[in-house]
Amino acid sequence: xxxxxxxxxxxxxxxxxxxxxxxxxxxxxxxxxxxxxxxxxxxxxxxxxxxxxxxxxxxxxxxxxxxxxxxxxxxxxxxxxxxxxxxxxxxxxxxxxxxxxxxxx
Length: 105
Fold this sequence. Notes:
Elements: E1 3-15, E2 20-31, E3 34-45, H1 56-65, H2 68-79, H3 90-100
């Protein structure tokens, strides 16, 4: 009986306008060459990510598709985004405040 566990990148995808890189890693367990199990893990890299710890093949793909134009467009996109926007508009917020006031008679 010879159990073996192999972890390898089995898929690299380029997605969207800002060329996000999706990396899928497969973990395969075999016993004497017969596959017992296979599981997957996926992570996504955007063009502002530190890729120094990534596999050389992933780094090569990132460097090929993340042009200066893509990086500038992504930076403009993220700088124009409102992070954690309020789910309540100002009008409904005012109504909430008025209804929460308790009148003392």
